[in-house]
Design brief:
The chain is built from ten helices and eight strands. The strands form three sheets. The chain has a four-stranded antiparallel β-sheet, sandwiched between helices. A two-stranded antiparallel ribbon has the order 1-2. Strands 3-8 form a two-stranded antiparallel sheet. The termini are far apart. A hairpin with a 6-residue loop joins strand 1 and strand 2. The protein is flat, with a radius of gyration of 29 Å. It has helices at 2-19, 51-55, 68-81, 87-97, 100-106, 111-121, 132-136, 179-185, 217-227, 229-246, and strands at residues 28-34, 41-47, 125-129, 142-148, 151-161, 164-169, 173-178, 190-194. With 266 residues, it is an alpha+beta fold. It has a domain at 52-208: Cathepsin B, Chain A (Alpha-Beta Complex), CATH 3.90.70. One of its GO terms (molecular function) is peptidase activity. One of its GO terms (biological process) is proteolysis.
Length: 266
């Protein structure tokens, strides 16, 4: 009886050990492929990172609609200067050392508020008026104000390369603009820089290969037209109709030649 019981326990243990699957790390995708008709499989472990984590890599995401300034400053302090601070701590510091009454009134932080806090932390800093050529020669990340989507907004300018401006945006993540588009958005041509002092700065805000994977607006439009030919056709006809209607203008700028309007029946 004891031998039967011992044998059952041993068999149960062996089966349990054989069926236990080791837990995979978070984000790991396991791909198994048959090599031949045998039981052997070719296994590959692929680490997959969510898009939202890629987009906000080395960026402190702003917690409130009005906290882009504090989030941008926290991003520079954490990923360039090397201080480990939360956005809440930076916000409290800005309220303490900055002009708290004006901050509450305008519901936003200024570069002067940033400078006062950074000085209290023991780092040199400064606000500057600059040109695009100055930005091209910068060897530090800079906090710059821009006009975007109808609002004033603070972002961290990482670098300019090959006619594009790469930024760490606390609202939408790592983004880039063509240089000409950035010039239109840049507010008052000013910037704010935190210098690391005697400490060796981190390289987390330097441009890396994965940051160069952007799709320009023209390519996006062409892809949309290829994927949705009906949209392409409608757009083409709408433009043609607009040009034809211009021929009725009495100013004579467009010749009143033969008209050819397009209509689509459903």
């Amino acid at each position: 009886m004891l031998l039967v019981l011992a044998g059952s326990i041993l068999t149960f243990t062996m089966v349990q050990e054989a069926t236990v699957v080791e837990p995979f790390e978070k984000g790991t995708v396991v791909i198994e492929q048959d090599v031949d008709s045998g039981p052997v499989k070719l296994r590959s472990d692929v680490q997959v990172e969510p898009l939202v984590e890629q987009r906000y890599r080395n960026i402190v995401r702003q917690a409130y609609d009005y906290s882009c300034g504090s989030a941008a400053l926290t991003t520079v302090l954490n990923y360039y200067v090397g201080r480990t601070l939360s956005e809440r701590q930076v916000m409290e510091g800005l309220l303490h050392y900055g002009e708290s009454d004006r901050i509450v009134e305008r519901r936003a932080f200024s570069m002067l508020d940033m400078k006062r806090l950074v000085t209290a932390l023991g780092y040199p800093s400064g606000g500057f008026r600059a040109t695009i050529d100055d930005l091209k020669d910068l060897d530090h990340p800079a906090i710059v104000p821009i006009h975007h989507a109808g609002f004033k907004h603070f972002v961290v300018l990482r670098t300019i390369r090959d006619g594009r401006v790469y930024m760490a945006d606390p609202s939408v993540g790592n983004i880039s603009f063509p240089l000409a588009q950035f010039e239109e958005k840049w507010d008052d041509n000013v910037l704010f820089i935190v210098f690391p002092g005697s400490d060796t700065p981190l390289d987390n805000l330097e441009l890396k290969e994965e940051d160069l994977r952007f799709i320009d607006d023209q390519t996006m439009t062409l892809l949309a037209l290829e994927r949705m030919p009906a949209f392409h056709e409608a757009t083409e006809r709408r433009v043609q109709n607009l040009l034809e209607r211009q021929k009725n203008n009495p100013d004579g700028t467009v010749e009143n030649t033969r008209k050819q309007l397009y209509y689509r029946r459903n």
